[in-house]
């Protein structure tokens, strides 16, 4: 095999190997899209002039796929 043919084969093999390594990463990246969530609502503070202490908010439980 001549030197230019070996070099071309090495380059082609390297490109195929890089493509094979990047394909799963790209597939995973496409599947990790953030999904919109419904945020809990918080009652408006009373207008009595008194400062309102922060109240705990009941967050929705995370959904497992």
Shape estimate = rod-shaped
Q: Report strand %.
A: under 5%
Helix- and strand-based class?
mainly alpha
Average pLDDT, all residues: 75
- pLDDT under 50 segments (min length 5)? none
The residue fraction in helices comes out at: 40-55%
Largest sheet: none
Task: Give the count of helical stretches.
Answer: 1
Q: Tell me the radius of gyration.
A: 28 Å
- How many angstroms does the end-to-end distance come to? 53 Å
Taken in chain order, the helices and strands follow as H
What does this molecule look like?
With 65 residues, this protein is mainly alpha-helical. 45% of the residues lie in helices and 0% in strands. It starts with a helix and ends in a 34-residue tail after the last helix. The model has no long low-confidence stretch (mean pLDDT 75).
Give a quick precis of the structure.
With 65 residues, the protein is mostly helical. It contains 1 helix and no strands. It is rod-shaped and about 90 Å long.
Describe the secondary-structure layout.
Blueprint: H1 3-31
Features:
65 residues, mainly alpha, 45% helix, rod-shaped
